Each structure stands twice: as structure tokens, then as C-alpha cells.
Amino acid sequence: MKRTIYLFIDESGNFDFSKKGTKFFVLTSLVTSSPSFKRYALLNLKYKLLKLGINQEYFHATEDKQFIRDKVFSISNKFKNNMIVNSVIIDKTKTKKKYHDPNVFYRETTRILLYKIFKELKQKEVNNVVVVLGAIFTRDKQAQIQKVLKEYIKSNFSVQFEIYFHKSQSDINSQIADYFGWAIYVKFERGEFRPYRLIKSFIKSTNPSILTEEPGGSC
């Protein structure tokens, strides 16, 4: 029986290649065929926090307090058999200058991530893909990202697909993707291993990639 899969993508780091920029750029995806599976547990957590006088509008790893992060990661373990997490970690200090243009850099990083995702999905019965990304991008950036996604999916995966840009506050899966992406990012950027250890079993691969002279970089 064929099915629909939902793909949520989150990014950490920036496109600044100067000494002021981040050392790493991380693009993380969450793939699931059941986006509502047990997600009520995080909604319950939100309302418990509100009852305690904590103004928790939504979950965002960089802003949430440590005890809230611990609870979100603990609850997320209930989704272990329900989702697949992939991540591309780019060491910007080793990235060739030809990729320093933000548009080129994002395009190539996205292609590496899509390769990882669809390499697995080709082995499964999937006939529809719904992609949800953050709405933080400008319209021009959204158009560029949409073009990359459309070209890749059409060329490599013959399925129907939809692409949406939603505020992460509106979707609990986008918030989970944010948490996982943050945990991977701080491991490489700041050497903080504790968050990563809490989600390590979810991650397919976290070997840093380098954008070399070869189109698409290493996968």
C-alpha cells in the first residue's frame, strides 16, 4: 500500500564565511508518514507549563530553558519508531570559495540532504511527499529553495509532491526538527555533547560534509 510521507526541514548556523560567522552550517530533516502520532504529548507539556506560569507559546531549542529541553527530548523518544532524522553538517572553514555565495551554498547543501533522504525512500512504497519548511525566508529565497526541491524530486523520485513554507510556531513537527537540528549543531559548533546524546539513536549520519570542487559536495 502506497503512502504519503511528510518532510520537515530546519537549519542551524549562518551563511557568513568570515571569522564572525558560524564554523558549521547544519541542515536537518524529519521524515514521517504519521505526523500526528503521539504528538499530543508535547501539546500536553505546553499546557502544563502554562499552568505553572511559564509563557510557553511554542518550543524553540535556543530559547527554551534547560528543564524544558530535557522534557521535549524525553517526550520525543516516544516517536522513535515513527520518524527518520537525517542531517547534513557542513564545515564552512573547509568549504571552497565557489560555494560561499549564499544561494549556491544553500542549493548544494540542500541537494546533499535530499540525496540522503530519497536514497532511503526509493526503497519504500511512497506516492506523495509533503515538504514543510520554515517561513523565515524572503520570497526570493523561498522561490530558490522551491526550485531546488522541485528539480530534485522531479528528476529522482516520480511522485506527487507539495511544498509549503510555514512558521515553525504553527507545527509541532517543525519544532521537533528544530530541537534535533539544534542538538546536532551545538555538538559541532560549541562542543556540547549532552543534547546530542539524547537523540543519537534517531540520527542516520552526522559525518561532516565538505563542499569541494565537485558539484554537490560529498554525500
Automatic annotation (TrEMBL):
Official protein name in the record: DUF3800 domain-containing protein
Species of the source: Candidatus Woesebacteria bacterium GW2011_GWA2_33_28
InterPro entries: DUF3800
Pfam families according to UniProt: DUF3800 (PF12686)
